Amino acid sequence: MKGKHILIVIIVILVGVLGLKFMIDNKTYSANEILENPDFSAANREMEVIKIKHNPLELITIEIPADQQKLLIESFKNLSFKKNKDSQIEYHYRFNFSLNSNFAFYIDVDKGIIVNLSDKNQKYVIINDENFLENFKEIIENEKEVINSN
């Protein structure tokens, strides 16, 4: 009888641990959560996009008009994310933006995955994109390279 109780307790603990892991793996994060409460209403909001060419490494800053910078930041504010464990990410762009703090990400535009450089390179997949990736792609398709910064 005592062995049965121990077995039941072990099963309950295992089910609880597995359920907790499932809930953590499927948690949805807002932009506020992954950026740790940024001030999206900051007066001096700026964004920079850098094209990364590999072999040999070359970093090229892309000129973005101020109105498009604000549009990208506003659309980023409304995104939701899930953590991503995909180790195969082909990033060819990095974007940085400043609000009340500075934030930096690598982005795989095709997969909709960002790597948060401010959070131990945590990877997130964008799950509810209304127009951020579309706007980002439009900017890089019409890119005007301004600074070569090796």
At a glance:
It comes from Solibacillus merdavium. This is DUF4825 domain-containing protein. With 150 residues, the chain is an alpha+beta fold.
Could you give the topology of this structure?
Layout: H1 2-25, E1 29-30, H2 31-34, E2 46-53, E3 58-62, H3 66-77, E4 80-83, E5 93-98, E6 102-108, E7 113-116, E8 122-126, H4 132-141, E9 145-148
Antiparallel strand pairs: 1-4, 2-3, 2-5, 3-9, 4-8, 5-6, 6-7, 7-8
Keywords: Membrane, Transmembrane, Transmembrane helix
Organism: Solibacillus merdavium
Protein name: DUF4825 domain-containing protein
Main sheet: strands, sense, barrel? 9 strands, antiparallel
Q: What is the N-to-C succession of helices and strands?
A: HEHEEHEEEEEHE
Rg estimate, integer Å: 20 Å
Query: How many β-strand stretches?
Result: 9
CATH topology: Dna Ligase, domain 1
Strand neighbour order, sheet with most strands? 1-4-8-7-6-5-2-3-9
How many helices?
4
Mean pLDDT: 84
Q: State which percent range the strand residues make up.
A: 25-35%
Helical percentage:
25-40%
Structural class: alpha+beta
Low-confidence sequence ranges = none
CATH-wise, what's the superfamily?
Uncharacterised protein PF16224, DUF4883
CATH top level assignment: Alpha Beta
Number of domains: 1
**CATH architecture annotation:** 2-Layer Sandwich
Q: What is the global morphology? A: elongated
Query: Whole-Å distance between the termini?
Result: 71 Å
Protein name: DUF4825 domain-containing protein
Transmembrane segments: 6-24
Organism: Solibacillus merdavium
Keywords: Membrane, Transmembrane, Transmembrane helix
